[in-house]
Write a structure and sequence with these properties.
alpha+beta; Alpha-Beta Plaits; two-stranded antiparallel ribbon; 3 helices; 4 strands; globular
């Protein structure tokens, strides 16, 4: 499942640089997450880095976008094709 940022976001700027997939961007009012790029850090880290650094805990799992761990891994490889050759994950 992709993550999303609630309207509790305080625009502190700490989540955006932590995203290895460049899925987080400044929206019109708060930071937002592109679900097509969000793998919940699968393939990069054991935990979602944006969730780890968020001081107000406003980054949640988007239950409307159900993805299995296998689907998240496949998305990781689509976004990072060179990782397939190195055995990363």
């Amino acid at each position: 499942m992709a993550l999303y940022i609630t309207d509790q976001c305080i625009n502190c700027d700490v989540c955006e640089p932590e995203c290895p997939n460049d899925a987080i961007y400044q929206g019109e009012e708060i930071y937002e997450i592109d679900p097509a790029r969000c793998t919940e850090c699968v393939g990069h880290f054991e935990t979602s880095q944006c969730v780890e650094v968020c001081p107000v805990e406003c980054i949640l799992v988007d239950l409307a976008r159900g993805e299995t761990p296998e689907e998240l891994t496949a998305k990781f490889y689509r976004l990072n094709p060179s990782a397939q050759n190195t055995g990363s994950s």
